[in-house]
Amino acid sequence: MKPANRLAFIKEYYFSKKLQEIKKMQQNGIDVINLGIGSPDLPPPFDAVAQMQLAAKQENAHKYQSYRGADELREAFASFYQRKFQVKLNSETEILPLLGSKEGIMHISMAFLNEGDEVLIPNPGYPTYTSVTKLVGAKPVFYELKEERKWQPDFNELEKHDLNKVKIMWLNYPHMPTGAKAGKTVFHDAIAFAKKHDILLVNDNPYSFILNDCPESLLAYPEAKEVGLELNSVSKTFNMAGWRVGAVMGSEENIQHILKVKSNMDSGMFLPVQLGAAVALNEGEDWFKKLDLLYKNRRTKIVELAKKLNCVLEERDLVGMFVWVKIPDAYKTSEEFSEHILQTHHLFAAPGTVFGSAGEGYIRFSLCVDEATIEKAIKRVEA
Ligand SMILES: Cc1ncc(COP(=O)(O)O)c(C=O)c1O
Fold first, then answer.
1. If you take atom 2 of ligand 1, which residue's CA is the nearest one?
2. Ligand 1 centre from 299 Cα, in Å?
């Protein structure tokens, strides 16, 4: 059967293909250490799992659930945003639970984009912004993030372009894959820019609590709700990526538009999963301290590994669950270097170009691997 024309503009997700190749190597007896994927390997909070199990025994647990998510989950997101970001949100009208933040990228695009609209997308950046933009018939317009600007958008440069067709601007701070934090004025400048050009600003914020001394929300800035939305999820913060729970936060009017799309696509989330996630969102400070220490230790070891591979590190804080480094001069492209370490050391790390052309010359190591495995990787390289 001939697929829809829209499929001609997108490719199978890089990791979907690459992981098949790695699986084949493993089936052939090669012990590949996968440092490519950002899927937390640690357990979720114990009490969240216990709540999920308990809720599965409730009589009403197995019915269709509300299109707007369970009250408990919306209230937990509201209280989380109040405690962590000092952002006040109405849990009835300004929060819409989602199946992870990834789902929100599609719903927001469906709700706000017409064919031919333009979308500002960070390069390098999360590939889903681009593929979803293409799937809905809109046009990606990339804004380059550069190391010399600490991976921050250059609004003066953007102002030089015709912005009449731009409808959405994706921001993603803390930024994946570079691990950059938003600079002091970025959210402020982005809001002014979005207001001036009538652009919907969306900050995708799933990494705010990983190795970050100062978590921030776009919505904490004045007038943000007028022009902006934020996505967040329990995937990285609470090691619950497979649960598929996130939310979009913003003005009642914008949330209503998204609900119009979402309520036509799914029929609610499994209640026990929502109630378990609500418990996670109420975790105390100990949870965050423990996670921070663990990732710090892993990061130290990954940095050691990267140095052993002759990669070059920038002088800055790395936020989130990745270490983003320059490949050694001896290699022409990120893919060549990634392939080299895969074939020589049986280590897989994601070439920077997976995240766009501006990722050329870089490679991304994930922190979702335990310390013993990273030590094993280091020993392989030393050998
Ligand atoms: C930048 C970015 N946004 C969104 C997601 C999706 O996360 P979620 O599990 O919340 O859908 C990811 C996952 O890797 C990501 O890196």
1. 126
2. 20
Q: Are residues 244 and 266 in the same domain?
A: yes
Ligand 1 pocket check for 359: Cβ under 6 Å: no
Pairwise CA distance, residues 345 & 348, whole Å: 9
The answer to whether the CB of 235 is under 6 A from ligand 1 is: yes
* Per-residue pLDDT tens over the stretch 208-258: 999 999 999 999 999 999 999 999 999 999 999 999 999 999 999 999 999
Q: What is the DSSP string of 188-257?
A: HHHHHHHHHHT-EEEEE-TTTTSS-SS---GGGSTTHHHHEEEEEESTTTTT-GGG--EEEEE-HHHHHH
Radius of gyration of the chain (CA): 21
- What range defines the domain where residue 66 resides? 59-281
**Looking at the domain assignment, is residue 49 inside a domain?**
no
Answer with the one of 232, 260, 281 that is the final residue of a domain. 281
At 8-44, the pLDDT tens digits run: 888 877 888 888 999 999 999 999 999 998 999 999 9
40 lines ligand 1 (CB under 6 A): no
Nearest alpha carbon to residue 197 among 156, 168, 231? 168
Say whether both 242 and 320 belong to one domain.
Answer: no
Phi and psi at residue 105, to the nearest 5°: -65, -40
Percentages of the chain per state (helix, strand, coil), in multiples of 5? 45, 15, 40
Q: Is the CB of 322 under 6 A from ligand 1?
A: no
Distance (Å) from CA 381 to ligand 1 centroid:
30
> What number does the ligand 1 atom closest to the CA of 103 have?
11
Cα gap 325→108, rounded to integer Å: 32
